[in-house]
Amino acid sequence: MSLETDKKEFRPVQWLLTGFCLLALGTAALCLVSVSGQPDLVGRALTAREEAEVIARNSPLTDYIRLSPNGDFPRKDRIRKLTIHHMAGDLSLETVGENFSQRDRRASSNYAIDSSGRVALYVEESNRAWTSSSRENDHQAVTIEVANDETGGSWHVSDQAFETLITLCTDICRRNGITRLDFTGNPEGNLTLHKMFSGQTECPGPYLESRMEEIAALVNERLGAR
After folding, report:
1. Mean pLDDT value of segment 126-144
2. What is the sign of the dihedral through the CA atoms of 78, 169, 212 and 223?
């Protein structure tokens, strides 16, 4: 067999190897772009000073911070909505933070509230959390996960969690220029539910869903909205 014949037979292998190399380089480049686009504070322990600076940019009600890599940095729309979710369990803020820290879960929220009424921040308000099965909604909404003190059934939440939810929603509205919350039962309102954007979930469960109009009314009363 001639040397020229050997070269011709080897060319498909060369092309295949070249293709694999280019694919690997492209994947690596995308990963670098993704990581480089994240704020330096994401995915690591924060100093006391850094935590204070983060809280100053977000809700002063924040008790715990673990910034998730799962998000868009920054969000692409101004904040004009709130979206309520439930944890589907009585989880601690630390457990939720650990779950959201895992990149392969591809999930996060801006805030969470545990059954004792403590508040966690996982994605700063200036960034979009991956919460509601809707890119459009999440770019406009601050999303809040609420712990359940009842598993199954109506997915009840504690009185402490509910009261903190009202306080947190009021605070978010005030700082972001939302003068009134309206629950319309569909995505057109500025108080929305996860289930409005996905047929695969009943989130936030019957209990919170049944109190959405009350949540809006209580927040509006505190805002002085007419």
Report:
1. 98
2. negative
Amino acid present at 51: E
Cα distance between residue 112 and residue 100, in whole Å: 11
Strands 119-121 and 64-65 turn out to be parallel
The pair of structure tokens assigned to 214 is 């009350």
Averaged pLDDT, 43-58: 96
Q: Which phi and psi (to 5°) does residue 144 adopt?
A: -135, 120
In degrees rounded to 5, what are phi and psi of residue 146?
-120, 130
Q: How far apart are the first and last CA of the chain?
A: 90
- Strand-pair partners of 65: 121
pLDDT tens digits along 81-132: 999 999 999 999 999 999 999 999 999 999 999 999 999 999 999 999 999 9
Residues 190 and 183: their CA atoms lie apart, in Å, by 7
Q: Write out the H or E segment, with its range, that includes residue 162.
A: helix 159-176
Amino acid identity, position 108:
S
Are 143 and 110 spatial neighbours (Cβ–Cβ below 8 Å)?
Answer: yes
DSSP string, 74-141: S-SS---EEEEEE-SS---HHHHHHHHT-GGG----SEEE-TT--EEESS-TTSEES-SS-HHHHHHE
Kindly report, residue by residue over 178-204, the tens digit of the pLDDT: 999 999 999 999 999 999 999 999 999
In three-state secondary structure terms, 71 is strand
Of 84, 98, 112, nearest in space to 197 by CA? 84
